[in-house]
Amino acid sequence: MASGVANRAWSLGRDLVLRVPRTEAFVADLVKEAAVIPVARGAGVRTPALVTFDDSRDDADVPYMVLERAPGADLADVLEAGGAAGGVFREVGRELARLHRVTPGGEPAGVPVEYDPDVGAPRRLVEGLLADGMLDADAARWLGGWFDRLAARIPGAASRVLVHGDIAPQNLLVRPGPDSPALTGIVDWGDAMWADPAVEFAKTPLWGVPAMLDGYREGGAAAADGGSGGSYGAGGSYNTYNVYDASYDSYSPYAWEARVLRYHLTWALARLTNPAPVTGERHWTAPPAARLLGILRFFASSPPEPWSALA
């Protein structure tokens, strides 16, 4: 089967999938997946069930995992064939709303914590690219101003939740629908971590993020800007799961969009510090300019409000 960076995959008949780490370096990710998948399913997330996880090394020189097989193909193949994402990203947003109700303090153990980025990190990144000759002075000033405008809409550190960590087209399984593909499962939990929930939207192409955030809000995990928190209270109330509070929406209009865009822009510029192409990978961010071109494409295509206000 189509394999990822960390694991090789084989179909075992029509209903099961075998996953084996490519090298010892990726064993820890598979161990993490074995812990996270049952928790995600317990939260109601559509992800194939874990059938077997064997780390005894009696049958192989590395651990292996057997999963139930979700029907359909991955979204990356659908997009490469000229298909439309349709409502897939909106569906994904609803799934993430369920996942992000899981907070630290219990299972799954052994999941790393990503600390919120330093507020000054984007500016230091821009200054470093200017010093290295990757940016001219005018572009550096413009980018610095953009980061400042985004920062004005973003409050302090967000509460951490369990995130998948790699919500990208190749990890979204879909099958044909009457109008557009329908989501059948989210796979590959090797990058799961405790993190700012906004980081979850940073590995999705930016053009898919508005629909994903719409679904996320429909799922109740992020309130409409300055409005009701749905089942989690209203007017910036603090909810049981620490997912929605005043710091995200009532504090400043479009705080969610600003935080997500800050990740996309920061990671796009960070790629310039190591611009070597990565060949043989299906991930949309493998080409060095992919993120920057993705941002350009998004803002050149008349994005919906409030995104145009953040440019």
What features would you highlight for this structure?
single chain, 32% helix, four-stranded antiparallel sheet, three-stranded antiparallel sheet, Aminoglycoside 3'-phosphotransferase, Chain: A, domain 2, globular, alpha+beta
Summed up, what is this model?
The protein is α+β, with helices and mostly antiparallel strands. 32% of the residues lie in helices and 13% in strands.
Give the arrangement of secondary structure elements:
Elements: E1 7-12, E2 16-21, H1 27-42, E3 50-54, E4 64-68, E5 73-74, H2 75-80, H3 88-99, H4 121-131, H5 137-153, E6 161-163, E7 172-175, E8 182-186, E9 193-195, H6 209-218, H7 255-270, H8 290-300
Antiparallel strand pairs: 1-2, 2-4, 3-4, 5-7, 6-9, 7-8
Residue windows where pLDDT falls under 50 for at least 5 positions: 223-247
The figure for the number of domains is: 1
Output the number of helix runs.
Answer: 8
The biggest beta sheet reads: 4 strands, antiparallel
On the 0 to 100 scale, the average pLDDT is: 86
The N- to C-terminal Cα distance equals 40 Å
Per CATH, the architecture is: Alpha-Beta Complex
Strand order of the largest sheet: 1-2-4-3
Task: Report the radius of gyration as a whole number of Å.
Answer: 20 Å
Helix content: 25-40%
Highest CATH level, the class: Alpha Beta
Order of helices and strands: EEHEEEHHHHEEEEHHH
- Relative strand content: 5-15%
Total strands: the figure is: 9
Provide the CATH topology. Answer: Aminoglycoside 3'-phosphotransferase, Chain: A, domain 2
The outline comes out as globular
Structural class of the helix and strand makeup?
Answer: alpha+beta
